[in-house]
Amino acid sequence: MKMKTQWKMYLDQTTPPGAVVDFSAAAFVLQVAMNLRISLSFVEATPECHYLAERIMASAELYGHAREAGSTLAFTDAEKALAEAVALLAIELQHCPSASHAVDASLTPMHPAAASQPTTIESNPFGHVSL
User: Fold this and answer.
1) Residue 58: pLDDT band with limits 50, 70, 90
2) Model pTM above 0.90
3) Residue 49 pLDDT greater than 60, yes or no
4) Residue 43 β-bridge partners
5) Which residues pair with 98 in a beta bridge?
6) SS (H, E, C) 26-52
7) CA-wise closest residue to 64 among 122, 102, 20
8) How many C-beta atoms lie closer than 10 Å to residue 11's C-beta?
9) CA–CA separation, 94 vs 115, rounded Å?
10) Would you call 18 helix, strand, or coil by DSSP?
11) pLDDT higher for 82 or 73?
12) Environment class of residue 113 by beta-carbon count within 10 Å: exposed (0-12), middle (13-18) or buried (19+)?
């Protein structure tokens, strides 16, 4: 698998999850952070990449809070801002050289297959939690 394909696979997991019954803003932000970190590990990230990653994190937090609050207008604006930031980072990452060393993206040594799968949080077995 090409490095560019790998970073894109993880970056694609930073988008909002769609219709989820028990959405958790904290879980969504954590999912975005983990997938961003892995995406950036496949390239020699520029300062612009880091700026856009921070913008994605800020947008993900706003999106999560607006969604939990049920604020339709704020939720829609935050979703658009998040999508725009992800698209801009994808463009920037296309121009970055591959990292000089391959980063092991596996979550645990006991599950090597985890390295080839984006991190998603399907459901929260402990109920709904917000910060």
Assistant:
1) very high
2) no
3) yes
4) 98
5) 43
6) HHHHHHHHHHHHHHHHCECCCHHHHHH
7) 20
8) 24
9) 21
10) coil
11) 82
12) exposed
